[in-house]
Specification:
Blueprint lengths: L1 E6 L6 E6 L2 E7 L1 H4 L9 H11 L8 E4 L7 H10 L4 H15 L1 H8 L8 E4 L2 H10 L6 E11 L2 E9 L2 E9 L4 H11 L8 H7 L8 H7 E3 L5 E3 L13 E4 L2 E4 L5 H7 L11 H29 L3 E5 L6 H4 L2 H4 L4 E4 L8 H12 L19 H10 L1 H6 L3 E4 L3 H13 L4 E4 L13 E5 L6 H10 L8 E5 L3 H4 L11 E4 L17 E7 L5 H14 L3 E6 L10 H10 L4 E4 L2 E4 L6 E3 L2 E3 L11
Helix pairs in contact: 6-14, 7-11, 17-20
Length: 603
């Protein structure tokens, strides 16, 4: 049975494909369109998934969409009768519904030469999130929680997963939302773009929680583990909040009302400098979010008694809160798949349909490498097309056929302070680069953040960089020891280790780690192992291979990023490009500069 799952007409549009209950491919549309958080119909992601699976559209048995406009219909109608919306708001909602209902026609437009015979299934938004968390987790039984802005008139759901069944125990409905709370305050702090919440997480440790009284007025907790907004501080429930995807990019108008500025003072404009007041509000926002989040999950743990939890929804990308779950609640194991936000709804919708149709569980997502890979011939072709430009930049390149040598050379360059691009294998699924589309640096260097921001990333100085750590070394370097393969949890670095790795130690002593397994990514593991052998440090700094754009997908994009920035070296498959010709030059079949046959694996 072939099931195609979609997240469409929402930020991070995506597609995923299952064959007999096992994931074959998954990718976000932004990687192909080159527009961050692209929203709309994910035609290019669909085309990729079909190619990867070796299928045509006519082979698809079921299409699952993570949205159901008929969900919670009675509750929605009751709310509308009690709170009649403005005409503009109603018109906006109807237009959004119409776009999703046209998906069958969009298949015909995008794939005019192929016939789609599949049955269509619309899966309620949070049901898809719950499925994306539990049905691909290693847990046979767990508490499952979905928290985000809104989807299908709800903002949160909690459930118990057992085997292939998920029983929903409760939900929070419009207009109350933990995601809207965080997004509105993110806008207030001068970060208006879709998905900017992670910037506030990075800013929060620089402040003090001096605005908790105000935050508790804006967001209230109930005795049942739920939460409610003081709607005086928000606009989304009474007037249209322009949500558009101009050029494919999703954008929101302000979610907060003037009353919020009356409570907290004037908003910060994006061009204005950050002040201590803004840092303190960010810290207070994160602290109140955590109070509400732990209030919710701890209540559910007490209710059902399980000690495993699986999370999804946009709020499950709050890695700071995720990393505190074991400290703040009785939960002992935490699973957050790599695309926990709305992109993950594509997988969740597909698995929800698979299990509705009687499918059994046979798959665990223990790695994120579900995107495109490229052959040596495709990589060589990309370089050949840019050869004149590469030569004009004075770059050298080598072919390194032995993977051991490849890893050791990359590790040596990183240890020597070089900024290294690493492009290997299948692209990651989800927002994090996890060792196949990464930029790598030495975590021991205190100046690396400044170097990266000057040479490549050009991002806010307060944002931290993350470590990729050999999985068996986590307990030695961090205060907790657990598998975090998708960089979705922040742990405290042991105090005595922090001076050794300043580049990946945030101001509060934390690190958003990724644990690396020899089993799931043997080459990246070997690179870090080689770096450990050279330096005694079993980790590298890992940031996404991009420059204020979606993570690179194709070798052409990796080359573009390398050439327009000041990256020192690029490992592209089995080829290495370097800006220093002394490192070596492959020309007319001869290697010049390094007598490579004399370089051992440990040089």
């Amino acid at each position: 049975m072939i099931i195609l799952g979609l997240n469409a007409f929402h930020g991070d549009s995506a597609a995923a494909i299952l064959r007999d209950g096992r994931l074959v491919a998954a990718a976000e549309e932004e990687r192909f369109r080159r527009v961050k958080h692209w929203a709309g119909f994910p035609s290019q992601a669909i085309a990729y998934c079909l190619r990867e699976a070796g299928l045509s559209l006519s082979d698809v048995d079921h299409v699952a969409v993570n949205q159901d406009s008929h969900a919670h219909h009675v509750r929605r109608l009751s709310y509308l009768l009690r709170h009649p919306p403005r005409l503009a708001l109603l018109r906006e909602r109807l237009q959004n519904r119409k776009a999703r209902e046209e998906i069958p026609e969009l298949f015909t437009k995008a794939f005019p030469s192929e016939a789609l015979r599949a049955a269509f299934h619309h899966v309620e938004h949070h049901q898809a999130h719950l499925s994306s968390a539990f049905h691909v987790s290693p847990f046979e039984e767990a508490v499952v929680v979905s928290v985000d802005g809104f989807g299908d008139f709800a903002s949160a759901a909690w459930a118990v997963g057992q085997g292939n069944k998920i029983e929903v125990l409760g939900q929070v409905y419009f207009p109350h939302s933990l995601g809207i709370f965080y997004q509105a305050l993110t806008q207030y702090l001068g970060f208006p773009r879709y998905g900017d919440e992670y910037k506030v997480m990075g800013l929060a440790p620089y402040g003090s929680p001096t605005h908790m009284e105000a935050m508790r007025r804006v967001l209230k907790l109930t005795g049942r583990g739920e939460f409610a907004l003081d709607l005086a501080y928000f606009r989304h429930h009474r007037e249209p909040i322009a949500f558009s995807w101009e050029g494919g990019f999703p954008a929101f108008a302000d979610l907060f009302s003037p009353a919020l500025e009356g409570l907290l003072g004037p908003r910060r404009r994006p061009e204005e400098p950050l002040e201590d007041r803004h840092r303190d509000i960010a810290r207070s926002l994160q602290a109140r979010y955590e109070e509400a989040f732990f209030h919710l999950v701890a209540t559910q743990q007490k209710r059902v008694g399980l000690t495993d939890i699986a999370l999804a929804g946009g709020c499950a990308m709050n890695s700071v809160a995720n990393g505190k779950i074991r400290r703040m609640t009785p939960f002992r194991r935490v699973y957050v798949q790599s695309a926990a936000g709305d992109a993950g709804g594509a997988i969740g919708a597909a698995y929800a349909v698979w299990h509705r149709l009687g499918g059994v569980r046979s798959f665990v997502m223990d790695h994120a490498f579900w995107g495109p890979a490229f052959t040596p011939a495709e990589i060589a072709g990309a370089i050949a097309e840019r050869r004149a430009e590469i030569d004009a930049f004075g770059c050298a390149f080598l072919e390194i056929r032995e993977e051991e040598r490849l890893c050791c050379l990359a590790a040596r360059m990183i240890a020597d302070g070089k900024v290294v691009g690493w492009f290997r294998g299948r692209m990651e699924w989800g927002p994090r680069a996890l060792g196949n589309r990464s930029i790598l640096c030495d975590p021991r260097r205190a100046d690396v953040k400044a170097i990266l921001n000057a040479k490549i990333k050009r991002r806010e100085s307060f944002r931290p960089f993350a470590p990729s750590v050999l999985e068996e070394a986590v307990g030695e370097w961090f205060e907790e020891d657990d598998a975090v393969p998708f960089m979705t949890q922040v742990f405290q670095i042991r105090e005595e280790k922090r001076p050794m790795i300043p580049a990946v130690t945030h101001v509060d002593g934390s690190g958003r780690l990724q644990t690396v397994s020899r089993r799931t990514n043997p080459l990246y593991y070997r690179l870090i192992e080689a770096f450990r052998d050279l330096t005694g440090v079993p980790m590298v700094l890992n940031t996404s291979f991009n420059e204020n754009e979606p993570v690179v997908c194709r070798p052409e994009e990796a080359l573009d990023c390398f050439l327009r920035t000041q990256m020192d070296a690029l490992f592209l498959g089995n080829l290495m490009l370097h800006r220093d010709r002394a490192v070596g030059l492959r020309s007319s079949g001869a290697e010049i500069g390094i007598a490579w046959e004399n370089v051992s694996a440990h040089d």
